[in-house]
Amino acid sequence: MTNLRELLHFYDEAGVDTPLEDAPVDRFSQIEAKRVVAPAAHASRPSQQQRPERAAASQPAPPILSKASVPDDAKVAMARQLASSAATLEELREQLAAFDGCNLKFTAKNLVFADGNPTASIMFVGEAPGREEDLEGVPFIGRSGQLLDRMFAAIGLDRTGVYIANTIPWRPPGNRTPTPLETEICRPFFERQIELANPKLLVALGGPAAKALTNATEGILRLRGNWKTHMTASGIQIPVMPTLHPAYLLRNPAQKRFAWRDFVSVKMRLRALTD
């Protein structure tokens, strides 16, 4: 019982919270069975001289394994069409909730669309939801979200004065990094979300969000602290401040001083734009 409890605790820490099958499968017993069957099959196999010449021709063709569905050009085109047809953020949320073109939707518990004030002058964009966000359907509410709230307060902001979203609205299994295909299938939706929210400033939380918003190729440690630009589909240029993700800061507390500098720069830029 103790070992089972420890195993379940390990699964929980690793982000495994959903079984893929109704009944558990003992993979170790399958491996042992193969080891037992293989020698017996080898012993009963006829020699080259005894084997009929037609044996090779009569062997059945290997089974064709079905490939997992991945976002393709047609699905990307469909995502663009649906995103562009949304005239409001609520319509965009409904279109995204009904869209079945991204595999992540089928392993996530909830759509994590946005939080905060959609009419705010500043919008914060992360990469993808974590476990707590997936359970509640709200971005940045776990440990990293609590740190982000404290970072807001340090420059005189809170969630009533900011808009928060992610480039990926569904949690990847086990909190893995979203694939480039998954990012591309979701890109029309988060770009349309930015266009409809129409913020004066964007803050990219972490490298993946910074690259998705600015098409930059550098890592976040080179990008952070330097103002970039996001171009909307309608041709509007929005200043972007890439900074370190709160989850990274929890693992590397010494880097908080750099994030503080970035947030001070954001505060000064926002004040200049709103005065």
Could you please describe the fold and organization of this structure?
This protein has 275 residues and is of the alpha/beta class. Helix content is 47%, strand content 10%. It is built from 12 helices and 6 strands. A 6-stranded mixed sheet has the order 1-3-2-4-6-5. Strand 5 (228-231) and strand 6 form a beta hairpin. Helix 4 packs parallel to helix 8. The protein is globular. It starts with a helix and ends with a helix. Residues 51-57 and 63-71 have low confidence and may be disordered.
Summarize the model shown.
The chain is of the alpha/beta class. Helix content is 47%, strand content 10%.
Structural class determined from secondary elements: alpha/beta
Q: What's the shape? A: globular
**What percent of residues are in strands?**
5-15%
Number of strands: 6
pLDDT averaged over residues: 85
> Low-confidence parts, pLDDT < 50 over ≥5 residues?
51-57, 63-71
Number of helices: 12
- Terminal Cα span: 63 Å
Largest beta sheet: what is the strand line-up?
1-3-2-4-6-5
Q: How are helices and strands ordered from N to C? A: HHHHHEEHHEHEHHEEHH
What percentage of residues falls in helices of 4 or more residues? 40-55%
Biggest sheet features: 6 strands, mixed
The rounded Rg comes to 25 Å
